Amino acid sequence: MKKGLFLTAIVCIGLSTASMAQSKDGALNIKYRRSSLHTILMESDNFPRKDTVIKAYNNAPFPDKYNDHTIGAKSFNPKQYSVTDEERAAAGKKQSAAGNMLKGLVSQSTAGIVDSAAVDDPLLINKYFKEARIANQLVAKWFNRQTDGSFDMSLIGERGSYDATEMQANIAKGSARGTASLSDAGEELIKNTFVVVSKMNFVTNEIVAAKVRDAAKAQAANIKVEILQQTALKAADAAYEKAKEGYSVWTTSYLYKLVWNDSVAAVFYNNLWIDKANLNPQKKEAFDNSDLFQLEYVGDEKATSLVLFSLKEKRTEDQIVTLATIRNIDAVFAKLQKKYDEFKTKTPLYTGNPITAKIGMKEGLEGGEKFDVFEQTIDPKTGLTKYVSKGNITVDKKLIWDNRYNAGEEQVAEGAEAKPALDRTTFKGGDKYYSGLLIKQIK
Q1: Model confidence pLDDT, tens digit, residues 169-179
Q2: What's the number of domains the chain is made of?
Q3: Which of 32, 67, 107, 366 is close enough to 18 for a disulfide, judged by CB 3.0 to 4.6 Å?
């Protein structure tokens, strides 16, 4: 997946709000700390237009409210791993014969979209994480690990506006845990590192419609009254004709979070840290083989997009499939953000009067959603970042930015009046807010 254009996540440690700068064209560039994200595609069996779907996934813009924490591996094949009954039982997913039969029926009726292996996905993902040491790779990227095993604080300094040299010196002196900046970096940056593993399928609606039609006709065959039977058969055919057009994109995304706390940080800084001045082959090997770093499961969400083709449509079928695929990805991310508080992003206000921010339909906004407004400050007692509530605001349903993929290329129905293009969403909530305050959606 190529990198999207996104703001660098930096907040000046001594400032009370997100830092701001004026660009040459007058636009306000607001820099703030973000959560970090790595995305992985869980490969699926062959399905219609698979190559187009996978290409669209890989080329989709990176979610611009997160730091791009890509570590190289972008996909894995679950068939390289297996799950035993003992492992299912240990994970609390022991399957009965009836359960297996039900999964088979569901898979059959949806043309394989809901496959019998789906229940094993979290176990397969965990096996992949462990074998590929994904958590170790995420930590290695945070500390800019080199081939000789040495670390530095350059990326953390860049993303958090810390003095990287000073932080590195404190680690070397053995006073790492006593410095507020290192603790703050752990809480604000490293701790908020996520991995989203997505599994996608793309299926012709005709296949599913045919399965449903055949099942309906089988039931109709049991009707004893001929006129009622014929009515049921005609209804099954009519439903099939209506439902068979186009395709559907199905996505299930699993959300994981890097475990980073005081005890993990202490072991890392004290036992595994290496810098250029103190290379240590034993510590390098210890990090490579360490099981200290883990990813914890947060939850999952599903999204489905219907793809219909029209003779009036100017796009090619591949373009329509690509559009549906990328919007499906955006939809499942929006669902994850709304459902799991730790995955929600903070977004800076773009202007205070009117109240606007650079989020919109891609983030699932429909109008009426409420957001908390925060001012970022430094706690004078601890030296750690804290967020002070300043109130809440509500999305104006009449002024929502359509920032979905290729929204600017949407077709306007013949005779319809084109709406003026928006480049931000407007909120209601008073006149006490200003650019740089951070907002976060309320459940």
Answers
A1: 888 877 565 57
A2: 2
A3: 32
